[in-house]
Structure formats: structure tokens, C-alpha cells
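Worked example (supplementary).
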Amino acid sequence: MHRIKVRVVEEALDANNTIARANRDDFDRQDVAVVNLMSAPGAGKTTLLERVLAELDGVRAGVLEGDVQGSFDADRLAALHIPVVQLNTGHGFGGECHLDANMVRSALPSLPLADLDLLVIENVGNLVCPAEFAVGEDVRVMVCSVTEGEDKPLKYPLMFRRCELVLVNKIDLLPHLDFDLDRFLYFLDQVHPGVERMLVSARTGEGVAAWRDWLASVPGRERAVA
Amino acid sequence: MHELSIASAIVDTARRHAGGRPVSVVSVRLGGLRQVVPEPLRFYFDVVARDTECDAARLRLTEIAARLRCEGCGEEWEPSWPSFRCPSCASADVRVLAGEELEVEYIEVREEEGACIASR
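After joint prediction of all chains, the assembly is encoded as:
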């Protein structure tokens, strides 16, 4: 018995990335733009979607809702009379903490892609794991709420670096918190220089029109790039 | 907790290259800009490897420090905090030279004496 060294040099997540590309090809074929929406639990992803998805200027939107278990969020969004598909990750060691490309692939047959211009994939609430796994999206958006503290870009730089838009939510609470907005924006600019950001309150509606316009313009922008 | 998924991906990659032979070492390069924590990764690696070619294999982790380069002024540095602006000219045009690796570099497999060497 002897040992031999076998050269590999392969990105460990290559298999996930390959499936993500297959998902993206399927989305492209159906002309569906895809947003991967990520945040910590309770940052306001679902509420920010509830606020805008019903009135997207003729853009036909659907949601793929990722949760460890339950369909609370999917039920809320289904009330908007748009296609919503629930994806539960609650297998294995107490449930996966993120969506991966294969889970999204398994949900594709349930999605009416031919009738959609935009698919929002609402990821599992988590600031770490979803950032590592592409699912076939065109753009990544993250929500960070001011109740989370201004140091979050420094603590979770990967997610802040890998998104194209940061929604800073719950700004109606700023007068009641010690959250230093300037300091947060400074940290954000260090971690992801120049990243687009919007200050919003899903509760009062402040800034929500800009978010709606941005989201409604994703399919057009993606078509222009393609 | 995504270390479980990553450990599975590492074991899958190693098995694809093992050609059915028992694996004694899996060597992985892990960049400092990835949010992968070595201890849980080792724990899950041992769990996922059980009853596969990688059973009882050693996970060898080489941690790679982040290294950035400013495309504006040419400055190169190892960031001590997650700042991606050039410390010398403040440009945002910064390229990651190292630190984003999550790569299975090589594996070591055990082979019977006299086995076909073509697979090398």
C-alpha cells in the first residue's frame, strides 16, 4: 500500500455554481429576471416585498420563499395574488440555513416562469451562509435594519460585498435608537465602496417608492445587459 | 452552519477525484475573505466523510491571508479590517489578489502495490 497525491485544484462550490448557471439559463430562456433577497432574520424582507410587489408598473412578479420551516411569509405574500412558492430547508441537522442552487432547481417546476418577468428569491434569514451560495440570480439585494447595529458591514463583509443594493430598513426607528447612521454608511462604504443604497421604512412607507422603481426596472436592465 | 454544506461539497469533490481509492488527506486552501470557520468545517468534514472513500481522512487547511491591490495607484496590502478602499489614495478600484479561495488543492489516496499506475 502506498500513497499518491492527486492534484485537484477545484473550487469546492463548483457543483453548486454549475447548477446555479443551469438555473440562470432556464430563467434567461423564459426571460425572467431574478433577484436574490437576503438579510438577517426579522430585517423586513417580506414586509418590503408586501409593500411593492402588487404595484410594479406592469411587471409580473413572483416569489420563491425560502424558510427553514413554515409558510408564514408565503401566506402573507400570497394575499397579494401573485405566484408564491414555498421552499422549506428543514432537513438534515435542524434545517439548512440558506438556499442553494439545487434547492431552487427543485422548485422550478412549481413556478409559472412563462408568466413572470421578475422572480424574487427570498432567502433564509441569515447574514452569513446565503452569501456563499449562488442560486441563479441576476442581482443580489440585501436588507439591513437599523435595529441590527452599525457594525454589521464589518462583521458580515461577504454579504455586504456581494450585493448590488443595500436597503437600510426601519429608519422610522432612528430617533429611538443609538444607531449612528453616518458611521454605518462609512463602514458600508469601506466594505463595498460605492454600493447603491436606499434608506427606507417598510412601516411608514418612506423611501419605498424608490425601492419599488428600482425593483420594477430590474427586468428591463437585465434584458439590456443580455 | 453552512460549513456542513461546504464540508459535503469538499467530500464530494475529493470522491470524484479518488477513483474509488481510500483517501487519507484532503488539502483545502481557505481564503480569509470567505466566511468559513475552520473548526466546524473540520467537525462536519469528519461526519460527512464517514462511510465514504474519505472516511478518517485528514482535512488539511491552508489559510490564505487576504491581499488587495489598488488599480489606481498600484498599492498592495493585506487588510487588517474589512476595508476595500485603498489606504493610500482612497480609490474604490481595488482588486482582490488573494483571500477568496475555497479550493480543494489536492488529495492523497492509498493504492495497493502493483496497482495500475495509469491512474496517476
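Two points are worth noting when inspecting this output. The domain at 14-225 of chain A is CATH 3.40.50.300 (Rossmann fold). Chain A touches chain B through 39 residues (CB under 8 Å).
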